[in-house]
Write a structure and sequence with these properties.
The complex is a heterodimer.
Chain A (H helix, E strand, L loop, with lengths): L1 E3 L7 H11 L3 E6 L8 H7 L8 E3 L4 H4 L3 H16 L3 E6 L1 H6 L3 H6 L7 E3 L9 H17 L13 H5 L4 E5 L8 H14 L3 E6 L5 H5 L6 E4 L2 H15 L3 E2 L6 H14 L9 H5 L2 H6 L10 E6 L1 H15 L2 E7 L5 H10 L5 E2 L3 H11 L3 E4 L1 H10 L3 E3 L18 H13 L5 H9 L22 H12 L8 E2 L1 H8 L3 H18 L3 E2 L1 H11 L2
Parallel strand pairs in A: 2-3, 2-4, 4-5, 6-7, 6-8, 8-9, 10-11, 10-13, 11-12, 13-14, 15-16
Chain B lengths: L3 E5 L12 H7 L3 E7 L1 H11 L9 E5 L2 H4 L5 H15 L5 E6 L1 H5 L4 H11 L5 E6 L9 H10 L10 E5 L4 H14 L4 E4 L14 E5 L5 H9 L3 E2 L7 H15 L4 H26 L3 E4 L6 H10 L4 E7 L8 H6 L5 E5 L2 H11 L3 E4 L1 H9 L4 E3 L14 H22 L11
Parallel strand pairs in B: 1-12, 2-3, 2-4, 4-5, 6-7, 6-8, 8-9, 10-11, 10-13, 11-12, 13-14
Helix pairs in contact in B: 7-9, 10-11, 10-12, 11-16
Chain lengths: ~525, ~425
């Protein structure tokens, strides 16, 4: 058993639902107890869709368990097929159905249905949502394309030149309940079109069975969300020889690298290195003097592998932040995240334990948290500004306005969203100078429009104390030391407290007074 | 009783009882709800409640792993470890609910015994109780029934003459009802659930129970078992229902009828005024209620008798005929009351009848709106202060609001004449 207050991912069948609901003409019969239909409202409420997800649940109850649950599955398969007449059928189980082992997929395959039937085996007690999505997309694509697979994978990425047409790529990975997929697709399509590259199929988002059958006609697969599409891209590469791009275009630098990679794979001249500066506003906004105070802001990053990696690069190379923590809940992405963390001089945090992430966050004492919906909970507790960069998310992160993360416009969105929670420069200076104000008190962020601060005033104190429990017996803060500490702006106070204690331990003094604080400051150059 | 009682089976679109945690954790802030289940259970609760940002979580899930299923790990040892971990982080928790789920019920994990054992270990510090919120056994609000039923054996015994209000009420509504019963002449009034899980009301032969909610079958049964008298009355929704409900309480305490009329008459008069603008919107409109919370019958009765709506179909996930007898008697002749659900066929009927308003869950609300059918999502009814004579206007407003909203924005969003500026 694992104690879970918040889970970063849903069960794998929710991943399968994401694929089915993203596509057209694909229906999903899910063997699940009454109540598991809650997942519908992820699509109708969070994604705000105006149609029901194409999912038929068997919704068995306790009294059905005494009877023939296998017959129940068959009845629902039959009803779903008659009513919805899908072009392809997915059949699978939720966690409870997995325990009673009715083999619904095999049952459906034996029913003599005319459309392709994909049997989904998603182990709910060991795998999670993204894995479920990736596996479902992979199984579906494999099932639909297996008849087309050539005996020898042969593919010429330069065929478009010989055929006298524009190169054509597939965009693979975008799905419902993915982070800003709707607008990322628009942005990447625009980006590619500007470079004379056509988009063939976008899948799974908006794709039908016909579209999946057209996948092999592309010159290149663009893997936008490796968590969902990498296994499919790699299967297409192995069986049809179609290469796929590895760079995810989130951030100005990454978008440039992405363009270079795509151009190279398609045998085209690489694009101008200046393009990002011309087409995105992030570079100038970040260079302008207003942003100088962002230099060295301590930031803690957590999310899925793709978005965490992208954020780390943007923070370091494009916004001038100092990354003080980097981690992901995507175990499949552990290796690249570890490498990226190492380059930043950090140990990557690879875990899906919300409490461990909260502890690491408190430990790193950042000034900004870039995380998921879950990190907003811990950031609230610790009184740290926070922005959401990755799923899990909630309804606020499926906005009406266009808000991609990818491409040039994505970088603009990122600049605004990540800087917004921080205290504005002037306010930060004035609070550092005058601490006796009746309105602009410690921790107050007037641009967020509420009085009484961000709640940080109270919370940081408890948080600070909570983190020093271990040292309490060894170290004593004098009144004069505490008073001096209070003078430090609230958002770096946690770090200064920690540094002072580390310094005191290092030099072997038990008491921390104002002088120790200055000594530590000089020692750590901060 | 002359309503047309029907039954239907098939795919259901309802919440499981775990969802009750979403409001119970606020009613009793010193309690913690630990679901023993799968990642699906954890995902359900956070999808429902995670839009709020919690500095201190009030619920969590002990997620079963393959080791637990294979029997490699001793379930009870594991549960002990998880509870210790939790209580270390949240030492201020006073009552810990171990909530059963579909997986834990299917593998027959004995949470009742686990609760008993943990209780002994944590003697005096934390009380551990158990109930099931699994989808295979409970539907939505039945989770609250389970939670309250689990508390009943813990209630102290007392012969004191008292009125016990059972079922979650909004704080303001609770205060108001207690005040009104006080004016009628009942001096001792207590509530289950209480606002603090440690302040459990006593129960015994002197206790008269008024159920505030229609979904408390098991809790009522156990309270009777403890010697309490459970009254049968319409539920306190709308002016009429609330009045009859209060009168039932007053009658049990042998209060003079004149005094009751003196207190309640002006309230009912005022409620009629408050209802008027909503009645104007709702009168003659046809409503279809899908099964969700068991509140459907009293709501239908209120909407028909006090707001003048026509009932197309009244769905309910479960029909307790004894407790609902008074409600059924107030429904018009031949009202279609459908127990259970075949969601696809029910939606066919919705489309066929084209009602003016459909009360349904959130999984169906937006899709029906997109088809041009106005909806009132039903979950809001368990999150709103709707009980009592004084709340009749507010309750009606919950139903008139979606219709008023349509009237308000439809012309602007769907201009009829393409040549004319909308605001000319």
């Amino acid at each position: 058993m694992q104690l879970t207050l918040w889970t970063y991912e849903g069960p794998p069948h929710v991943g399968a639902m994401r694929i089915a609901a993203s596509m057209e003409g694909v229906h999903y019969v899910l063997h699940a107890p009454q109540g598991d239909t809650y997942a519908d409202l992820l699509f109708t409420m969070i994604e705000r869709r105006g149609k029901r997800p194409p999912v038929t649940y068997t919704t068995f109850q306790a009294r059905d368990l005494g009877g023939d649950t296998a017959e129940l599955v068959k009845r629902h398969v039959r009803e779903a097929v008659d009513r919805f007449k899908p072009n392809a059928l997915l059949v699978g189980e939720s966690c409870t159905a997995e325990l009673i082992q009715d083999q619904p997929g095999a049952l459906a395959q034996g029913m003599g249905l005319t459309m392709p039937v994909v049997n989904l085996e998603l182990p709910a007690y060991s795998k999670k949502e993204n894995w479920g999505a990736a596996e479902t997309l992979y199984q579906l694509v494999r099932n639909l394309l297996k008849d087309q697979v050539p005996s020898q994978p042969s593919h010429d990425p330069n065929a478009w030149k010989a055929e006298g047409r524009r190169p054509r790529v597939n965009l693979l990975g975008p799905s419902l309940l993915g982070f800003r997929c709707r607008d990322d697709v628009l942005e990447v399509q625009r980006l590619l079109t500007m470079h004379g590259i056509d988009v063939g199929v976008v899948a799974p988002l908006g794709a039908g069975v016909e579209d999946v059958l057209r996948l092999p006609k592309a010159d290149l697969n663009v893997c936008l969300y490796p968590e969902v599409a990498e296994s499919t891209c790699s299967w297409l590469e192995r069986n049809f020889g179609i290469p796929f791009s590895r760079t995810v275009p989130i951030g100005v630098g990454a978008t440039h690298d992405f363009l270079v990679e795509v151009h190279r794979l398609l045998g085209m001249e690489p694009p101008s290195a200046e393009e990002g500066y011309r087409r995105s506003r992030l570079p100038w906004y970040s260079e302008s003097v207003d942003s100088t105070y962002l230099t060295g802001k301590r930031v803690f990053i957590f999310g899925d592998g793709t978005h965490a990696l992208a954020a780390a690069r943007i923070c370091k190379e494009e916004l001038g932040f100092t990354v003080v923590g980097l981690g992901t809940y995507s175990r499949e992405m552990a290796r690249p995240v570890r490498t990226a963390a190492k380059e930043l001089g950090l140990e990557a945090l690879i875990c899906d334990d919300y409490l461990a992430v909260e502890t690491a966050m408190a430990e790193a004492a950042p000034e900004l948290v870039l995380g998921t919906q879950m990190e907003r909970h811990s950031a609230k507790r610790l009184g740290i500004p926070c922005a959401v960069i990755s799923t899990p998310m909630h309804v606020q992160d499926v906005p009406a306005r266009t808000s991609p993360q990818m491409g040039w416009e994505g970088a603009n969105v990122i600049f605004d969203d990540w800087v917004h929670p921080l205290m504005m420069g002037l306010e930060e200076h004035l609070i550092g100078m005058f601490r006796h104000d009746f309105e602009f008190v410690d921790g107050h962020q007037s641009h967020l429009g509420h009085s009484g601060g961000s709640g940080a005033g109270v919370d940081t104190k408890t948080a600070e104390h909570a983190t020093v429990e271990v040292d309490e017996h060894a170290l004593i803060w004098t009144d004069d030391g505490e008073a001096e500490l209070k003078k430090i702006p609230f958002f770096v106070r946690g770090k200064v407290r920690r540094n002072a204690e580390a310094y005191a331990l290092q030099v072997g003094c038990r008491e921390i007074n104002s002088e120790t604080l200055y000594d530590a400051k000089a020692h750590y150059k901060a | 009783m002359s309503a047309n009682l029907l039954k239907e089976t098939g795919p259901r679109e309802v919440f499981c009882g775990l969802t009750s945690i979403v409001w119970l954790h606020r009613r009793m802030p010193d309690a913690f709800f630990l679901v023993v289940g799968s990642r699906t259970c954890a995902h359900l609760i956070q999808s429902a409640a995670g839009v709020m940002i919690f500095a201190e979580p009030r619920f969590g899930t002990a997620i079963l792993s393959e080791r637990d299923l294979a029997g490699l790990a001793d379930a009870h040892e594991e549960l002990d470890r998880v509870c210790c971990e939790l209580l270390q982080r949240r030492p201020e928790i006073r009552t810990l609910f171990l909530v059963g789920s579909c997986p834990s019920e299917v593998i027959k994990l004995d949470l009742a015994r686990a609760a008993e054992r943990l209780n002994e270990e944590l003697q005096g510090r934390v009380r551990v109780v158990n109930y099931s919120g699994s989808g295979i056994e409970t539907t939505f609000t039945q989770g609250e029934d389970g939670a309250l039923a689990a508390l009943v054996p813990l209630l102290p015994a007392s012969d004191e003459r008292q009125l016990l209000l059972v079922g979650t009420l909004a704080d303001a509504v609770e205060d108001r009802l207690i005040h009104l019963f006080g004016r009628l002449g009942i001096s001792t009034i207590r509530s289950l659930p209480p606002r603090q899980s440690t302040e459990l009301p006593a129960v015994g032969p002197g206790t008269t129970v008024l159920l505030t909610q229609p979904f408390l079958t098991e809790t009522a049964r156990l309270l009777k078992h403890r010697g309490a008298t459970v009254l049968t009355a319409p539920f306190p929704l709308g002016a009429e229902g609330s009045r009859r409900w209060m009168e039932a309480g007053a009658a049990a305490f042998h209060l003079p009828k004149e005094r009751v009329a003196e207190v309640l008459d002006p309230l009912e008069e005022r409620a009629r005024i408050a209802l008027r603008p909503h009645r104007e919107v709702l009168e003659g409109k046809r409503i279809f209620l899908l099964p969700e919370s068991q509140l459907e019958l009293p709501l239908a009765r209120f909407l028909q008798r006090e707001c003048g709506m026509e009932l197309v179909e009244v769905g309910t996930p479960y029909l307790n005929r004894d407790q609902m007898a008074e409600e059924l008697a107030l429904l018009p002749e031949d009202t279609r009351v459908m127990e259970g659900q075949h969601v696809e066929q029910q939606l066919d009927r919705v489309r066929e009848h084209k009602p003016d308003l459909v009360v349904c869950g959130m999984g169906l609300a937006n899709p029906l709106e997109a088809e041009g059918i106005a909806t009132k999502w039903s979950i809001e009814l368990v999150f709103s202060p709707i009980h009592g004579i004084d709340q009749a206007g507010d309750l009606a407003e919950l139903f008139s609001r979606p219709l008023r909203r349509r009237q308000l924005i439809h012309p602007g969003l769907h201009p009829i004449n393409p040549d004319q500026p909308v605001h000319a």
